[in-house]
Specification:
CATH architecture of the largest domain: Sandwich
CATH class of the largest domain: Mainly Beta
Number of domains: 2
Structural class: mainly beta
Order of helices and strands: EEEEEEEEEEEEEEE
Number of strands: 15
Helix content: under 10%
């Protein structure tokens, strides 16, 4: 809800969000410097409520330069430790001066829409067919994959885009199972500007996922 994209912020940043946690009921809030280093990290336990729960965070930071680009990154995992959702808000960090807070605009909406897909949807015969629309975060490709409860990803498909406007996509993911198996269908995109790689969240700038059921 606040701050919006390209807001100019000083320490401490007052963040206002509506949260829906993953099954783990833990939400992670990170403030990153322009290279990806973690300036501040908070964990919040949130009772899962699909309507969302309002929270405020005050994130403090120190930077050596007068200003640098930064990112507010919020993520949540499911009860198997897989990333369930991750979103990023680009901001400008200032060591001195006054804050200029922009509205969130359309950054509050999901960037992925899959036609006819619902939570725990069933797929059969070794193939997941997907069709929908994506609003890319940047000009990097987006990867789509199935991740089972043991954390092992299946075959990934790379989606490339013409610009960063909303556009259609269509792809298929093959899979092999001998019995009904749940998996997390995951769309992810990286931030190429980060030079520091997080051991768990890597360089992700956006992750969207939904749990599906794979059948022989």
């Amino acid at each position: 809800m606040s701050p919006g994209p390209a807001s100019s912020v000083i320490s401490p940043i007052n963040i206002q969000v509506m949260l829906v946690s993953g099954e783990s009921e833990i939400v992670q809030v990170d403030l990153l410097g322009e290279d990806g280093r973690v300036l501040q990290r908070e964990f919040e336990r949130v009772t899962r409520n699909l309507k969302g729960i309002f929270r405020r965070f005050d994130l403090k930071f120190e930077i050596r330069a007068v200003a640098e680009a930064g990112y507010i990154r919020i993520s949540s995992k499911d009860d198997f430790g897989r990333i369930q959702a991750l979103n990023t808000m680009p901001v400008l960090l200032y060591s001195i001066g006054s804050a200029q807070i922009n509205p969130p605009g359309n950054m509050i909406y999901e960037r992925v829409m899959v036609e006819g897909l619902k939570e725990k949807a069933n797929f059969y015969a070794g193939e997941v067919s997907l069709k929908g629309r994506i609003w890319p975060f940047n000009d990097q490709p987006m990867f789509v994959e199935l991740i089972t409860s043991d954390g092992k990803p299946g075959v990934a498909r790379m989606l490339t885009f013409d610009g960063i406007e909303t556009q259609s996509f269509e792809t298929t993911l093959p899979y092999k199972v001998t019995e009904p198996t749940t998996a997390r269908l995951t769309f992810r995109q990286d931030n190429p500007l980060l030079s520091v790689t997080d051991p768990e969240l890597e360089k992700y700038i956006y992750v969207y996922s939904i749990e599906v059921a794979l059948n022989p």
